[in-house]
Design the sequence.
């Protein structure tokens, strides 16, 4: 008898081991994926986070402008996209709770009664007060893999929430510095317009004095009108930027007060490459990995569908219907049964489901690898744009300085010496305006690259 019991235990152990080998019970482990890129990612996960890394800094440590800090906080409090992302987390958590409770048996109470009368006999009343319990024994991992998949779905929704949060922080900062740049351009254009207006009056006086021809005055006046026309374009862009900010903050359209001289903290970047450990904390990377893990458990569930379901059912209660007889008062009863349901004719569907799950798992792996490569490209682009913008800022500063001197010299030569022409004056002033505008645009590009770098490194905590 002992030998027989030992044989049964051994057979059961071997069966469970075999099923584990089929991947039904095995937990997802990113280190098991046969991909060099993913292996680098798995190794990076073992490295302790560097709290001083740019992407790990709090957004309040990166954006220190009080006005911008207030706007970002208002967006985090009110933005609809972020609220929906948080609700997605609640939904995933509720689904996970349901998956965990699937291990518990179902309980049902279904009282019923009936009455019958035959010929002249009295009414015969029967009743039942049954309590039914049904429990599926999860030997083959169907419920287990569903629960694990729900856990990955919850982690994915949390990563997505962080991605939305990071996107909102970066979006508000981008919009803030765009408004600042447009305000600076508007201020510059209006000041230049006033200077051109004065220049037109001076040229009219010179024309009346016989020192200039009419065409010089007309040329100068045309340039003045051109500047006034460009002001309307800047005002339109500024209006649109203000509306974008209002939308991010979930408020009605309004004008936001932003200084044209707004500046941003510049991180110290003395490296040409970003380690995988910093890319691994990006929320979109984490979300993509959780999608892969969820697909892994979907494949395991599809494999488990090939194995039978084992159910234990118990019924008990109080009734006066005992077989074909009615007994009053009634009596207690209890029933206990077990069932095993093995898929036979549904095998074709199970094969198709497994093949589809494997294909979807491969798609999830492809998407994960692409997300990793895309993350590296995003960071590389942001760093390069920042480095080139800094160099360009230096050259533009020198250009603006020298063009300012050129405008002063040509104006003096035109008014007091007569050795230059109105065309040279116009050209010098146009070149200065163009360089100053380029300087503002480059400053904005540098600020945006810093914001992009922070977001691309998973910033926004």
Sequence:
């Amino acid at each position: 008898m002992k030998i027989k019991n030992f044989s049964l235990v051994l057979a059961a152990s071997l069966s469970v081991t075999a099923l584990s080998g089929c991947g039904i019970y095995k937990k997802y482990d990113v280190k098991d994926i046969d991909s060099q890129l993913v292996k680098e990612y798995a190794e990076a996960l073992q490295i302790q986070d560097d709290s001083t890394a740019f992407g790990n800094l709090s957004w309040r440590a990166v954006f220190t402008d009080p006005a911008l800090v207030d706007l970002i906080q208002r967006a985090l409090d009110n933005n609809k996209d972020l609220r929906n992302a948080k609700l997605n987390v609640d939904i995933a958590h509720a689904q996970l709770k349901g998956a965990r409770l699937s291990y518990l048996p179902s309980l049902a109470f279904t009282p019923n009664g009936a009455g019958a009368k035959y010929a002249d006999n009295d009414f015969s009343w029967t009743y039942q007060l049954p309590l039914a319990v049904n429990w599926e024994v999860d030997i083959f991992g169907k419920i287990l893999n569903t629960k694990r998949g729900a856990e990955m779905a919850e982690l994915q929704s949390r990563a997505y929430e962080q991605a939305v949060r990071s996107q909102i922080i970066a979006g508000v900062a981008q919009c803030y510095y765009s408004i600042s740049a447009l305000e600076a351009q508007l201020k510059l254009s209006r000041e230049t317009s006033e200077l051109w207006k004065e220049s037109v009056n001076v040229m009219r006086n010179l024309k009346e004095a016989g020192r200039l021809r009419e065409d010089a005055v007309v040329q100068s006046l045309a340039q003045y009108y051109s500047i006034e026309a460009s002001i309307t374009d800047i005002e339109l862009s500024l209006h649109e930027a203000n509306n974008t900010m209002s939308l991010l903050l979930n408020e009605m359209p309004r004008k936001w007060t932003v200084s044209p001289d707004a500046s941003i903290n510049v991180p110290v970047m003395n490296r040409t490459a970003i380690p995988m450990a910093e890319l691994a904390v990006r929320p979109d990377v984490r979300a993509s990995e959780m999608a892969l893990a969820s697909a892994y458990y979907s494949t395991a569930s599809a494999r488990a569908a090939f194995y039978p379901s084992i159910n234990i059912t118990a019924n008990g209660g109080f009734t006066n219907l005992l077989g074909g007889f009615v007994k009053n008062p009634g009596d207690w009863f209890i029933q206990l049964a077990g069932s095993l349901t093995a898929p036979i004719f549904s095998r074709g569907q199970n094969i198709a489901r497994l093949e589809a799950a494997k294909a979807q798992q491969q798609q999830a792996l492809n998407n994960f690898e692409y997300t990793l490569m895309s993350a590296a490209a995003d960071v590389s682009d942001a760093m390069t744009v920042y480095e080139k913008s800094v160099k360009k800022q230096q050259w533009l500063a020198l250009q603006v300085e020298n063009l300012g001197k050129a405008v002063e010299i040509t104006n003096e030569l035109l008014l007091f010496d007569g050795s230059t022409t109105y065309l040279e004056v116009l050209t010098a002033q146009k070149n200065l305006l163009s360089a100053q505008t380029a300087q503002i645009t480059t400053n904005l590009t540098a600020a945006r690259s810093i914001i992009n770098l922070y977001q691309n490194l998973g910033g926004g905590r």
Notes: Confidence is low (pLDDT under 50) at residues 1-21. The longest helix spans residues 347-417. Strands lie at 106-109, 112-116, 124-137, 309-322, 325-341. The longest strand covers residues 325-341.
